[in-house]
Design goal:
Blueprint (H helix, E strand, L loop, with lengths): L9 E2 L5 E2 L6 H29 L11 H16 L4 H27 L1 H17 L1 H16 L3 H31 L1 H16 L6 H8 L3 H25 L3 H9 L4 H12 L1 H21 L8 H11 L2 H28 L6 H22 L14 H14 L1 H24 L3 H16 L1 H16 L3 H31 L1 H16 L6 H8 L3 H25 L3 H9 L4 H12 L1 H21 L7 H11 L4 H29 L4
Antiparallel strand pairs: 1-2
Helix pairs in contact: 1-18, 2-28, 3-6, 3-9, 4-5, 4-14, 4-15, 5-14, 6-7, 6-9, 6-12, 6-13, 7-9, 8-9, 9-12, 12-14, 13-14, 14-16, 14-21, 17-20, 18-19, 18-28, 19-28, 20-21, 20-23, 20-26, 21-23, 22-23, 23-26, 24-25, 26-28, 27-28
Amino acid sequence: MTATVPPPPVLQPGGRLLTAASDTAVPRRRGRLRSRTVAVVLVAVTVVAHLVFRTDGAADSSDAAAFRFFDSVRDWVDANRDTSPVFLYGLNYLRLGVRLLVDGVHAALTGLGFAGLVAAVAAIGAVLAGWRTGLLALGGFLAFGVLGLWEQSVDTLVLTVSAVLLSVLIGVPLGILAARVRWVGATLRPVLDVMQIMPTFAYLAPMTLLFLIGEPAAVIATMIYAVPATIRITALGIGEVSPTAVEAATALGSTRWQLLSKVRLPMARTTIALAVNQTIMLALSMVVITALIDAPGLGQNIVSALQRVNVGAAFDAGLAIVILAVVLDRITTNAARRTRVHRTDQQRRWRWIGVGLALVAIVLISAIKINPEDLPGYSFAAPVNDLVGWIELHWYDATEGLKNGISAGVLDPLETVLVTTPWWLFVAVVAAFGTLISGWRAAVIAAPAAAGIAGLGLWQHSMQTLATVLVAIVLTMVLGVAIGVFCARHDRLAAGIRPLLDAAQTMPSFVYLLPAVALFGASRFTAIVAAVIFAVPPVVRLVERGLRDVPPTVVEAALSAGSTPRQLLWKVQLPMARGGLLLAANQGIVMVLAMVVVGGLVGAGALGYDVVAGFSQRELFGQGLAAGLAIVLLGIVLDRLTQGFHHSKGPRR
């Protein structure tokens, strides 16, 4: 039976893409017209309802029921920490176990000494990822001593390794179960969604309540933040194993355990290595933030620099974090690539000989006592502070004009509209527009989440945060899409900007607060600027990837039909890359929301301030925990709407 091959796509002179399905264009056009008509009617009804029912924007209650409930939970925990079986036989032993793990990792790393640890990391990089990666690891760890941040860097590495070990031990088995048992995957999916939407700060208050401040709470919070990536990517790798290979192994009489250990895991090891890589990156970003709950490491340097608005000191610590992230990333990434190479028996034998020689060299070098403080030191603090001072002096009028213009012209009016909107009208609008643009399934989740925000007693602060998030998202998408388009069109620009994007994505979130504070002072706009800088890199990557994935044949057809570069972009590339653009918007929303909360440290107010005050002031614990939950619900609303729009409007495969 001969298959029918559809004719190739044809472009009209105007740039519109026509295919064999063009006979369905009229019904689709009618459907779009109906959708636009419904959208216009909804907008008109919403405007009229807001004008009729708007409120005076009264302040939030300081004694809401949710606050009292969370305060009562705190009081119960404090009263029963030493008597309740939950703590005596559960949480206290968990805290002790994590403490023993951290102490063991710390003893192993510091026991090697400066020379031994540098040699060990270089050897691991060379054996697992190649000699170039080994040299990179060698130079990177020597740089910690040159910057005068050796002890802090090792402390950060200890917490990161401890959290990654726990994440892998828990996440890989759960990922395998999620891939193999349908109900486990269905149960984990919404939990992982919430864990990934929740901003990093929201983890700190409950962790300090259950595990007190210090390293155990920091490691557990980091593990909870990083383990969703481990579970998701492991499940993806196990699920993508070739069914043909599984059927062949089953036909040969393999048991389930043999299928898992000898077929699924070996064939998914590259993806699992990617899961470990992403877990390390997420853990490193979270470990730095846990300095706010007394975790040691480079985060303490950044928090101290933030308190003193010392951009130069923060630059040194941030540079050390970037170096550590790049070294760990290159080792795991290149090691994952090398797992695809099939080696002969002789190559394996030589590799084991190399491992043995590396171990002997590490032991010998560890006996050499070198004090990292004796290395020639260098700090970027002075030149960076001089540059910041020059910018503050010469750019003051421009930065103040930009801040005041956007605040007065965009942020304040939007905040007024949202704050004076009754909660029931907001929920109705979310349900109506959610159904229209994303489908009823997304609306069923988003509308109750919006109602839950109102039930927490933080409506005004939630709407103020939403206004800040929306302004930051618009700025992020404008910059991200523009830069992504330029990178997709110019290979040299993409290659030149890639290291900057790599460095930007490895920086901890609140490092970006320092240049923003130096330029704009402590204000809501400062949080917006920091959020835009933080969220633009992934948006640029996704937009560039989406445009580069447009089939070259379609681009050639458009050019041969006489399309100009503008027509090619607007009528061919952007429509066909819509899925990537929507994914970029979704990721931008999640990252902006997380960063706006961090902005509570520099005067952004609203929910960010509530969360920060909640874990720093005992009397505000209930309000801070409620604010963290409000942020999660707000993130669910935005995430469901954008993800639902992606699934309902994005391209089908």
